[in-house]
Every structure is written in structure tokens, then in C-alpha cells.
Amino acid sequence: KQRVLSGIQPSGKLTIGNYIGAMINFEALQHEHDCFYMIVDLHAVTVPQEPAALREQSESVAALFVAAGLDPAKAAIFLQSHVPAHAELGWLITTLSYMGELERMTQFKDKSAGKDAVGAGLFVYPALMAADILLYKTNLVPVGDDQKQHLELTRDLAGRFNHRFGETLVIPEPFIPKVGARIMSLDDASKKMSKSSPNAGSYIAMLDSPDEIRKKISRAKTDLGREIVYDPKEKPEISNLMNIFAQVTGKSLQDIQKAYEGQGYGTFKKDLGEAVVAALEPIQQKYKDIRASGEVHAILRDGAERANTAAEQTLREVKQAMGFLPPV
Ligand code: AQP
């Protein structure tokens, strides 16, 4: 059994990008591996969050995890802030990181671009993310393609730690889906779909109503021409929609292309809208039931207990290796 860890920020409404790029894999991996899935609230506050909204989103993401098929009996589902070792190892790993390597992170560049005041938390985010992963001696990290660079840095930092202080940490491997690894924004296929986008029309939230979903897809930007062909370079917009179609229906891109040969964008978008609605409706129903039942709290309590046990052990080993005097 491999140890698996991943997380999602409660920084907005989860999108089908999060679902396709991350949660579908989370679900698949839990059957064979020892999985830890967390709601990374400490990461969410690297940009300002309104306290009431943070509380609500954290609970909402936990319920969505379960609604999307994560089984608390199999995987530990927990909040990052319920496991103090994250903040502590985060600091220790920060001290191992170089400014230069953090400055190279494209997510930092994107999120800080054009801003006068850039939070230091946003800058050291990758060190905390590395700590998250290393705390659980994680073997596999299921993430979307956008997180590849952070994972590479995590591997470097773990190697640096082991080199300096002796073999302590496990070097993790990314687990990135081949198709659908990156779902792009509906209004601009050069940007990834993101839950914190100010334009709600640029993403489909997992909890959008069927009508909102249909409307957003019908308004999604499309390339010139009218052919449904998968060609991410020449037709990035339609290729992104085809990608979403393939992911939610399980159909291949080739089959989709064949099915819509000679038909315009209109029919395709209409069918895509229905396919996304059909994929999300059962999740939304289950979500409502879970929220109403209040069971999320017990799930998070149990998940945090399991996570704390694993995390405290690694933190003890790390501190010992670094030369911190153990408490007497
Ligand atoms: N567009 C995407 N396509 C594929 N995968 C995606 N992920 C996010 N967006 C896409 C994957 O979802 C997981 C959780 O991401 P996160 O919440 O930690 O933060 P993020 O990657 O920064 O996602 P967002 O939606 O863009 O959040 P904000 O806007 O708050 O920064 C990761 O596995 C990620 O790969």
C-alpha cells in the first residue's frame, strides 16, 4: 500500500477543474491506498479570507469530498488547521528553502502579478505545501498538472533535508491524470479554470444549479470556425470543452470528435451542458443530504485524529534529526 496525500483550498466554490483534476483521482486511489485528503485552510489564508466565509467553505468542501465519493472509512478527511504539525514543519521547511527557487514558482508569479502588496504567505506557500506532503511520508500526490512545479520543489526540499540531516523523509511522486489534467477557463483558454476568479462565468462550480451550468456552457468562448476537432494549439477553446465532455462522460476524444462531425458548436454545447448536469446532479443531491445530517463534524474529528498520529511521528523524527533538544 502506498501513502497518498492531497488537498484542496477552501478559498471559494470548488470547480469542475478541481473535480476533474483532483477529486476523481482521490476517489479512485482510496480503494487501494492509504489516503489522506485534507482541506488546506492554512493555505487559503495566503490571500485574505472573510472569517465567516472561510468557516462555511471549509465545511462545504468537506461535505463535497464525501458527496464526490470519498469514503471516510477508507480515507482520512480532515482540516489542515486541525493538525498543528503542518504549521510547525512548514516553518522548518521554510528555513531550508531559497528565495530564488520560491521566486521561480509560476503560481506565485500569477497570483502576485500586478499587485502592490503581496503577502509573504503567498511567497512561502510552496514550503508549507512541501511540509504537508512530507509529514505523511507520502509516496503519491494526486494533483492537477498546474501543481507539478510545486511537487518538483517538494522533491528537491526532501532530498536537501535528507542530504543534510540523514535519511528521514520520503521523496514523493506526482500522480497526474493524462487527460483532463488541466481544465481551462471558459472565457479564456490560456488561463486555468480557477475558483477564485472574479468572473463566475469563467468556471463551473460543482454546486452550480443545472440552469447556471447550461447557461455558462452556452456562453463559453469558442474558437473561430465551427468544427468540433481536438486541437489544443489551434482550437484551445473547443478542445477544452471536449476535454470536459470526455471527463464527465468517460468517452474518448476521438469518439466525441466523430459523433459531432459536420455539426456546429450549438448542438455540441447543448449536449455538453446536459452531460455536466448529469454528472454533477447526484453529487449535489448527496451534498445536500450530508450538510443536513451534520455528519461532517464527526468525519473531520476522526480524520484529524488519524492525521495527527501520523504527522506527530514524522515531526518528532525531523526535529530530532535537525538537533532540537527533545522536551524532558
Ligand atoms: N483548472 C484545473 N484543472 C485541473 N486541476 C485543477 N486543480 C485546480 N484547478 C484545476 C486541482 O485542484 C486541486 C486543488 O487546488 P487548490 O484548491 O489547492 O488550489 P489551486 O490549484 O490554486 O486551485 P484553484 O481552483 O485555482 O484555486 P484558487 O483559485 O483558490 O487558487 C489541485 O490538485 C489542483 O491541481
UniProtKB/TrEMBL annotation:
Keywords: Aminoacyl-tRNA synthetase, ATP-binding, Cytoplasm, Ligase, Nucleotide-binding, Protein biosynthesis. GO terms for molecular function: ATP binding; tryptophan-tRNA ligase activity. It comes from the Bacteria. L-tryptophan binds at residue 132. Pfam families: tRNA-synt_1b (PF00579). Its EC number is 6.1.1.2. The keyword Magnesium does not apply. A motif ('KMSKS' region) lies at residues 192-196. SUPFAM superfamilies: Nucleotidylyl transferase (SSF52374). A motif ('HIGH' region) lies at residues 10-18. GO terms for cellular component: cytosol. The keyword Ligase applies. ATP binds at residues 9-11, 17-18, 144-146, 183, 192-196. It is found in: Cytoplasm. Catalyzes the attachment of tryptophan to tRNA(Trp). Belongs to the class-I aminoacyl-tRNA synthetase family. This is Tryptophan--tRNA ligase. It comes from Cohnella pontilimi. The lineage of its organism: Bacteria, Bacillati, Bacillota, Bacilli, Bacillales.
